[in-house]
Design goal:
Layout: H1 3-29, H2 36-40, H3 43-62, H4 68-75, H5 77-89, H6 96-114
Length: 115
């Protein structure tokens, strides 16, 4: 496995971690809290922002090798991750528009990486 491939996997891991964080924040937003301070100082929100921090560190580490032109495409995979996680964790509906949008994202990533 090449060095670039390893760093691409690290970058995709960071995007996946950020997607998990977004799902946690969305679950936290659906909860009613007794005070506004608890909306920000609860285990879900703190965990989600901690995951964002880890994601940022992984991204910075991966960008040592991954070209910026490729990183913007890899970042688009986050939309796919959030869509899939939302379906399985939040039980959101998969509409026709979401399928089409996901297909465009995947095709764009594939076209760029193949050419």
């Amino acid at each position: 496995m090449s060095r670039l491939t390893i760093y691409i996997m690290i970058y995709l891991s960071s995007v996946f971690v950020a997607s998990i964080s977004q799902i946690i924040l969305k679950k936290s937003a659906g909860v009613t809290y007794k005070s506004w301070i608890y909306e920000y100082l609860n285990i879900r929100v703190i965990t989600a922002y901690g995951l964002f921090f880890v994601s940022t560190l992984l991204t910075m580490y991966a960008l040592k090798v991954v070209p910026l032109t490729l990183s913007t495409l890899l970042e688009g995979s986050g939309y796919i991750f959030v869509l899939v996680l939302g379906y399985f964790i939040l039980h959101e509906k998969m509409t026709k528009g979401k399928w089409i949008g996901s297909a465009f994202i995947i095709c764009g990533i594939l076209v760029y990486t193949l050419f």
